């Protein structure tokens, strides 16, 4: 930048700070195309590039009284466009992360609901199958579900511990035939 262009840029900036619309129009006309090309190279999208440039100029106009530019005005504008691009990318990443996390949550919730429904259906089927079993076998199975040791089950029912184990084994074989998946779920 030559000395005369630096002086004229300082005068333009001073006029802009005072609210001179003509100075702003001159600034816009002089730098718009270069900023647009830069923004387009960053974004790869014409509409986004136009938005970045427009936002940078709007910011300059809105904050004109507060502007404190140490470098050249064009360098400031290029940084403003780049800043808008980086903000958009950060925002897109946040949105993508949120969408991925939300989808993961939905998938987990759907899985949990499916699992609850499946467990309820299996439990109802189990109750129906237990009703078909001889009384002692069903009692032993229910007591085992409550984590009561075989010794205590034997005492409660007045049978030997070995009988408890044998009846439980027979019960599991009968249920396994009907509920292969459920038996694995129960005793996994």
Would you mind describing this structure in some detail?
- With 188 residues, this protein is mostly helical.
- The protein has two domains: 3-97, Rna Polymerase Sigma Factor, Chain: A (Orthogonal Bundle), CATH 1.10.1740; 133-186.
- The protein has helices spanning 3-17, 21-43, 46-62, 73-132, 135-145, 150-157, 161-178, 180-186.
- α1 packs across α2, α5 (135-145) packs across α7 (161-178) and α7 (161-178) crosses α8.
- The radius of gyration is 38 Å and the shape is rod-shaped.
- The N and C termini lie far apart (77 Å).
The end-to-end span amounts to 77 Å
Number of helices: 8
Mean of residue pLDDT values:
80
Q: What is CATH's topology name of the largest domain?
A: Rna Polymerase Sigma Factor, Chain: A
Low-pLDDT sequence parts = none
The CATH superfamily of the largest domain is known as: RNA polymerase sigma factor, region 2, helix turn helix motif
Strands, count: 0
From the coordinates shown, what is the CATH architecture of the largest domain?
Orthogonal Bundle
The level-1 CATH class of the largest domain: Mainly Alpha
Organism: Sphingobacterium faecale
Domain RNA polymerase sigma-70 region: 27-88
Keywords: Sigma factor, Transcription, Transcription regulation
Family: Belongs to the sigma-70 factor family. ECF subfamily.
Brief characterization of the structure:
With 188 residues, the protein is an all-alpha fold.
């Amino acid at each position: 930048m030559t000395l005369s262009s630096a002086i004229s840029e300082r005068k333009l900036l001073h006029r802009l700070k005072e609210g001179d619309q003509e100075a702003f129009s001159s600034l816009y006309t002089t730098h718009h195309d270069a900023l647009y090309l830069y923004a387009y190279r960053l974004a790869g999208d014409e509409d986004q590039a136009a938005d970045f440039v427009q936002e940078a100029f709007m910011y300059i106009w809105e904050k004109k009284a507060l502007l404190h530019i140490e470098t050249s005005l064009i360098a400031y504008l290029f940084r403003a466009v780049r800043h808008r691009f980086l903000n958009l990318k950060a925002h897109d990443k946040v949105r993508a992360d949120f969408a991925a996390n939300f989808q993961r949550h939905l998938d987990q919730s759907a899985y949990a609901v499916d699992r609850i429904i499946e467990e309820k259906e299996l439990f109802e089927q189990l109750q129906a199958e237990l009703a078909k079993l001889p009384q002692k076998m069903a009692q032993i199975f229910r007591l085992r579900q409550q984590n009561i040791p075989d010794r205590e089950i034997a005492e409660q029912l007045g049978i030997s511990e070995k009988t408890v184990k044998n009846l439980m084994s027979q019960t599991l074989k009968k249920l396994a035939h009907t509920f292969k998946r459920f038996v694995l779920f129960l005793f996994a």
